[in-house]
């Protein structure tokens, strides 16, 4: 889970002193893209700083050869736990564009204030998407891990796992790059259109492959697949809540085991960046096997070795889901 807000504030306060704290800070925009516009001239490339893997990948696809794209959160790191270093803050301060998902990066808004840059374009890729609320049993104890809607409801940030909603994030990123670098607006549009075409093809594959599966429920390590499940007529049964590090209560564990036994679940899904011991414990209890359902919060060394990217991992997720739902 995220470190406490007190700790984050202390870290960012120290970093802000290093980063010329007298500069004017950005205001938070009510749209996906802030209204600030840096000057990019001549043949210089945009410097675009992103947060975790999906934001990096979506931005690289849109930017093509016209920007240098940096991912702050390294491969293998769990983004719910990560905090920026002084070096990361320096990268953020000098960026022409900053791309983040929203909610996952609890440190982002404070960091933007500390690493002030009044010419930086800020893209909150999930802004404008209708976010789902967490399930009631997920809300208690997760207020520091995810944003809150009106009335203190916890919001689900995992929109990148839905190929349809991912398209909206790509559109937001394209608009931000075009705002920062109008000279290449047509190029960013062309690149975005090409990637969106791949996402639409992925969406069609999910629709056709999951349409006639035998069962609709699947058990997964944490509640990352709500948007995907909703779009394709499925239901996720999460062991933990919206945060992958959330420890499920004994009652929650018992309920999952009871459901799995009653519904003859034969596969318990786990994740690549989180200790799978809880999923393995439940699988052992009910005599099921385990398999990976990747929430794409980061790439592992093995993913990189196998040249896997967002589309490739989402295709692997589809294969795993189809297999489990037809057992």
UniProtKB/TrEMBL annotation:
Key words, A-Z: Coiled coil, Signal, Transport
The entry sums up its family as follows: Belongs to the bacterial solute-binding protein 9 family.
User: Which Gene Ontology molecular-function terms are recorded?
Assistant: metal ion binding
**From what superkingdom does this record's organism come?**
Bacteria
What the entry lists under Gene3D superfamilies is as follows: Nitrogenase molybdenum iron protein domain (3.40.50.1980)
**Protein's name in the database:** Zinc ABC transporter substrate-binding protein
Matching entries from PANTHER family are given as: HIGH-AFFINITY ZINC UPTAKE SYSTEM PROTEIN ZNUA, HIGH-AFFINITY ZINC UPTAKE SYSTEM PROTEIN ZNUA-RELATED
Which regions form coiled coils? 185-216
